Amino acid sequence: MIFRRLCLSVARSNLHLPTFHKRIGGQFTSTRSSPTFFTQSCYNPTSQKLSVASRFVSSNCEMGDARRPLAVPIPSLDKADKNELLRALEASVGSSFSVEPLRPVPNPLIIVISGPSGVGKDAVIKRLREVKDSLHFVVTATSRPMRPGEVDGKDYYFVTKEEFLSMVEKDELLEYALVYGDYKGIPKQQIREYMAKGYDIVLRVDIQGAQTLRRVLGQSAVFIFLVAESELALVQRLIDRKTETKESLLVRIATAREEVRHVNKFDYVVVNEEGQLENAVKLVESIIDAEKAKVKQKAAVI
Ligand SMILES: Nc1ncnc2c1ncn2[C@@H]1O[C@H](COP(=O)(O)OP(=O)(O)OP(=O)(O)O)[C@@H](O)[C@H]1O
């Protein structure tokens, strides 16, 4: 009888080998252990007897797999050495504890930062650059003249109108627009390259650009609308920047009035309050962190 039971155990164990999960190149694979690797026994609470199928897993247990008490002795928790305890627990549950991250690898994220002229998009991005290193800030191509202090290839790619139109022709831009008489556009190749390296991508666009990107990317990107605490604060900021003529100042103010109405097309709104740049940056960081922690990840394809 005992011999028959042992044979049954052995035969069944070949169908119920413990499965070990390994991750190779971002994919999960399952590997079955060799039947000689594993030792487990089964406790029969009714008879108080142990039936041991040495060196094999027995599927002949009468209790649920996860909760059944096992014959592998677990040392006392307050006295045992941690490694010894871990080994005993592994033997009891039937597999070694994996060091693979339990969180799935997050997809690269595209973050679109937009808002009216003068609200502080550049200022927020400049600070984000300093505090968060997993981000790639896409360098926009523009046909507008360089402002004092700006660096070609860092702040923008400064190109002529002809060069810009040639990029449009070759479909090299994700989005482009004519803004206050100058072209601005986002090179696709740069995004692809950095997403492939695992970076999250930050795009800085005006409202017009954000609307186009929403059409192109839909819900596959995160859209953040930056606002000042009031219209007055925004105008004062533009005046203080001293980059505008009287005419362009008036155009920017009129445009800003229209633009704030588009806030409901964005996913998040962040107030960049006077003297509180740091708070705005922190909120943008938190938005990115929360998006990266989402179970259902966005998956942008450029
Ligand atoms: N929280 C803040 N408090 C005070 N000043 C700020 C704040 N944020 C930005 N500024 C200043 O406001 C001015 C406008 O900011 P910035 O140039 O970053 O705006 P922008 O949205 O990028 O404008 P544009 O779209 O016209 O390029 C700058 O002089 C900047 O230093």
Strand content: 15-25%
Average predicted local confidence, pLDDT? 81
What ligand molecules are bound, each kind once? adenosine-5'-triphosphate
Distance between the ends: 67 Å
General shape: elongated
CATH topology of the domain at 110-139 and 189-292: Rossmann fold
Strand arrangement within the widest β-sheet reads: 6-11-5-12-13
The total strand number stands at 13
How is the main sheet built? 5 strands, parallel
Number of helices: 9
What is the CATH architecture term of the domain at 110-139 and 189-292? 3-Layer(aba) Sandwich
CATH superfamily placement of the domain at 110-139 and 189-292: P-loop containing nucleotide triphosphate hydrolases
Instruction: Catalogue the unreliable spans.
Output: 1-64
The CATH class designation of the domain at 110-139 and 189-292 is Alpha Beta
Classification by helices and strands = alpha/beta
N-to-C SSE series? HEEEEHEHEEEHEEHEHEHHEH
Radius of gyration: 30 Å
User: What is the helix content?
Assistant: 25-40%
Question: What's a quick, concise take on this entry?
Answer:
The protein has 302 residues and is α/β, with parallel strands linked by helices.
